[in-house]
Design the sequence.
């Protein structure tokens, strides 16, 4: 089966490389023609995945979306805020049912839908899946052992994709809790911003450990409100990705938080960044949903107030540490 990867950021590029090296015929769609030409010629995405060579065999690079969506399987590696617009373009070009795989980790800013819901609403899909878990592009691109979860409701198709995507260095587990996997992927980025703020303030391992643990409790509470499976939040998409995103030097969300902790404003940081920190957008959406559903999420609320209301991070630490005593529970 032919595969296209729509989006040539770091993760889209790394995933294209992984599939091509395992023998699949892959088309990588790059939005800008000049960038597509440069990646094709240099066999390297110097902007988003520098230092990692791309194979010439099995990997075709194009800026033609109509050429890309001719594949049997369409992998969507665009940021969550761009998914709706991309899917409008895809829907105008695709005339038959396809299998879609989402790689984005966030919710739609306008509808608050998950990415699988956004995709399914735009096209008459054969099946829609989400791939998530602790999978930094910089490490997948260097063939470091990685395990992820592929979530979708059509398990028969899922098993075929599981086999297609798996390599000796990239292990794929299967799940049918697609909504749970997507909510994990969204909320963990907010907690990563919080841990970054903690790091930027000069706090240590105790604080980071507390934020990760209580952040997981927030993720579980949020998931319960949407009838997801609790065990999903203790798997690769939940706890696994939470730990990786909160501790890694590759984490853009942690990076944003650390700069805020050192005194920079979010507007300054966003102007400087080439890549997208999904947690910045997720914070606003998740905070709104938590308020609507009356879900207690103090870490998310603190990050929201820092990012969008100009609250002082030190004040937020004091507020959280002096909340009324309670029993430890999820």
Sequence:
């Amino acid at each position: 089966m032919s595969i296209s990867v729509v989006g040539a950021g770091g993760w889209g590029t790394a995933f294209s490389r992984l599939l091509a090296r395992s023998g699949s015929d892959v088309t990588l769609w790059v939005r800008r023609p000049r960038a597509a030409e440069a990646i094709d010629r240099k066999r390297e995405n110097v902007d988003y995945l520098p230092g990692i060579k791309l194979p010439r065999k099995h990997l075709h690079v194009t800026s033609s979306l109509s050429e890309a969506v001719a594949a049997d399987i369409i992998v969507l590696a665009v940021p969550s805020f761009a998914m709706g617009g991309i899917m409008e373009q895809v829907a105008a070009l695709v005339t038959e049912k396809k299998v879609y795989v989402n790689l984005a980790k966030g919710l739609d800013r306008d509808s608050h839908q998950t990415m699988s819901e956004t995709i399914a609403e735009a096209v008459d899909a054969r099946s829609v899946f989400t791939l998530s878990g602790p999978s930094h592009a910089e490490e997948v691109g260097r063939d470091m052992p990685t395990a992820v979860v592929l979530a979708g409701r059509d398990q028969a198709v899922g098993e075929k994709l599981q086999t297609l995507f798996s390599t000796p260095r990239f292990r794929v587990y299967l799940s049918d809790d697609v909504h749970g996997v997507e909510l994990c992927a969204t909320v963990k980025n907010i907690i990563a911003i919080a841990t970054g703020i903690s790091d930027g303030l000069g706090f240590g391992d105790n604080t980071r450990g507390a934020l990760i643990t209580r952040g997981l409790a927030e993720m579980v509470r949020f998931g319960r409100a949407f009838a997801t499976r609790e065990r999903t939040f203790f798997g690769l998409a939940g706890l696994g990705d939470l730990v990786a995103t909160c501790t890694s030097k590759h984490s853009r969300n942690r990076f944003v938080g650390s700069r805020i902790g050192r005194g920079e404003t979010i507007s300054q940081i966003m102007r400087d960044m080439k890549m997208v920190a999904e947690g910045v957008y997720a914070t606003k959406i998740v905070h709104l949903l938590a308020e609507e559903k009356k879900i207690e999420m103090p870490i998310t609320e603190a990050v929201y107030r820092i990012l969008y209301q100009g609250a002082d991070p030190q004040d937020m630490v004091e507020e959280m540490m002096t909340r009324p005593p309670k029993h430890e529970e999820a």
The two ends are 43 Å apart (CA to CA). The chain has a mean pLDDT of 96. The longest helix spans residues 178-200. The chain is about 50% helix and 10% strand.
